[in-house]
């Protein structure tokens, strides 16, 4: 009986897991912070977990390298940029491994090409094609901590590639998928995913759980906690993803599949917003087959991505055609429209860059009717005019005047009761 109790005690410990922990630039921004990461890894290792660490470059380093390159050549070759930028992560894997060894842990660093993360050859935005897990697995089996450089790989010829800005998140998820890890933990400077940006709504609440789909909508709508590709990847390979702070203890936010939720889903999980778009309208174009493609064809030929598209009902054989683009591409989109307006027979080109997009997001919308009308009511109560609307299964977005953006976010956050109202948690 005694023996059993003892073994039960031991068995009562946290169950061993294989964790991929990714630490972003601010988490490894100084030598002290690298030491703090090593302490955290050490703690998990003591608990019996197997750990693969993925690190970013020290904060600011990637930008510094980009500036350095530009000071030498205004349009540097993409291949050489990748050789340059990949060095940022090579610094942090070595330093972190040294810090781990100082703590008596066996650790080994790997660049992307050393792991053999094979990518295509699209320098600067490469996609991962294959990951060799053999060496990493052997290290883990031998009790070592694997320290992998984020954001990089190599093409089939060994040319160094990078995965695009923020790409270390994708490395983390990809390694977790390849190693069949129990969880991919993204340590960052926020302690989770919030119902909306706490800088806009101070009662915004950290979500314990959110689905991949919801996270994708939140991320693509401007809640820049995670690289979008990393979330897509995690959803595709069903890698449980957790966002947590590397500075304060906490459970963070678990991003997972829909079915794993126990409770009934609220209609709306969060409010996303951004000011990154601009609106363009071609007024009074003939309402004939092919007109949409004749407008958007030249836009896409110019490599401009279109977000929302709205075409009015025509009354007199003409229609107004409106769409939104990223604000960075506004000037180019406007120039393109001006150049085709005449031949399309348009009456005018109208445009507005002072707009904002505000969206409600939630998988619970699927089973709750009337969510959109509640949204419109809340905006109307604040006299906010809606310029465009678009919907998907789990999202309703509106375009409004930029100057009402924060008001709209606050109104919606309260209309959908997203603030923390749990007794004892609410602040006076
Ligand atoms: N260091 C790269 C960047 O700043 C990759 C990353 O941090 O995820 O974009
Ligand atoms: Mg990052």
UniProtKB/TrEMBL annotation:
GO function terms (MF aspect): aspartate kinase activity; ATP binding
Residue ranges of domain ACT in the record: 280-363
Gene Ontology cellular component terms for the protein in this record: cytosol
Residues annotated to bind substrate: 62, 89
Origin: domain of life: Bacteria
Isomerase as UniProt keyword: no
Top EC class, one word: transferase
Pathway: Amino-acid biosynthesis; L-lysine biosynthesis via DAP pathway; (S)-tetrahydrodipicolinate from L-aspartate: step 1/4; Amino-acid biosynthesis; L-threonine biosynthesis; L-threonine from L-aspartate: step 1/5; Amino-acid biosynthesis; L-methionine biosynthesis via de novo pathway; L-homoserine from L-aspartate: step 1/3
Catalytic activity entry: L-aspartate + ATP = 4-phospho-L-aspartate + ADP
Binding residue positions for ATP: 22-25, 188-189, 194, 199, 224-225
A Pfam family per the record: ACT
GO annotation (BP), single: lysine biosynthetic process via diaminopimelate
SUPFAM superfamilies: ACT-like, Carbamate kinase-like
Keyword tags: Amino-acid biosynthesis, ATP-binding, Kinase, Lysine biosynthesis, Nucleotide-binding, Transferase
EC number: 2.7.2.4
Family designation: Belongs to the aspartokinase family.
Protein name, entry field: Aspartokinase
């Amino acid at each position: 009986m005694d023996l059993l109790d003892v073994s039960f005690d031991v068995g009562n410990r946290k169950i061993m897991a294989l964790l991929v922990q990714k630490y972003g630039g601010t988490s490894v921004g100084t030598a002290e912070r690298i030491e703090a990461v090593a302490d955290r890894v050490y703690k998990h290792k003591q608990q019996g977990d197997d750990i693969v660490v993925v690190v970013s470059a020290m904060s600011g380093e990637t930008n510094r390298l980009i500036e350095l390159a530009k000071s030498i050549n205004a349009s540097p070759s993409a291949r050489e940029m990748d050789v340059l930028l990949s060095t940022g992560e090579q610094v942090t894997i070595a330093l972190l491994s040294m810090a781990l060894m100082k703590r008596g842990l066996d650790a080994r660093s790997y660049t992307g090409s050393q792991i053999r993360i094979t990518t295509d050859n699209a320098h600067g935005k490469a996609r991962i094609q294959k990951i060799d897990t053999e060496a990493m697995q052997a290290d883990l089996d031998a009790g070592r901590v694997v320290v992998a450089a984020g954001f990089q790989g190599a093409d089939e010829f060994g040319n160094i590639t990078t995965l695009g800005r923020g790409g270390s998140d994708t490395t983390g998820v990809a390694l977790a998928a390849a190693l069949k890890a129990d969880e991919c933990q993204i340590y960052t400077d926020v302690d989770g995913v919030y119902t909306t940006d706490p800088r806009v709504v101070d009662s915004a609440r950290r979500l314990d759980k959110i689905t991949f789909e919801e996270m994708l909508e939140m991320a693509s709508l401007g809640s820049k906690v995670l690289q979008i590709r990393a979330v897509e990847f995690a959803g595709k390979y069903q890698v449980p993803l957790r966002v947590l702070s590397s500075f304060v203890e906490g459970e963070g936010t678990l991003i997972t599949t829909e079915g794993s939720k126990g409770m009934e889903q609220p209609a709306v999980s969060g409010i996303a917003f951004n000011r990154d778009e601009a609106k363009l309208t071609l007024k009074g174009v003939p309402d004939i087959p092919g007109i949409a493609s004749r407008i958007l064809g030249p836009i896409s030929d110019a490599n401009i991505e279109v977000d929302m598209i709205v075409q009015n009902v025509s009354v007199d054989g003409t229609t107004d055609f409106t769409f939104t683009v990223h604000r960075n591409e506004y000037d180019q989109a406007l120039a393109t429209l001006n150049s085709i307006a005449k031949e399309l027979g348009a009456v005018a080109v109208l445009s507005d860059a002072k707009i904002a997009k505000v969206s409600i997001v939630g998988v619970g919308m699927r089973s709750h009717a009337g969510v959109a009308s509640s949204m419109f009511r809340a905006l109307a109560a604040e006299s906010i005019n809606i310029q465009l609307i678009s919907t998907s299964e789990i999202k309703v977005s509106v375009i409004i005047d930029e100057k009402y953006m924060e008001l709209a976010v606050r109104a919606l956050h309260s209309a959908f009761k997203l603030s923390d109202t749990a007794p004892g948690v609410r602040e006076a």
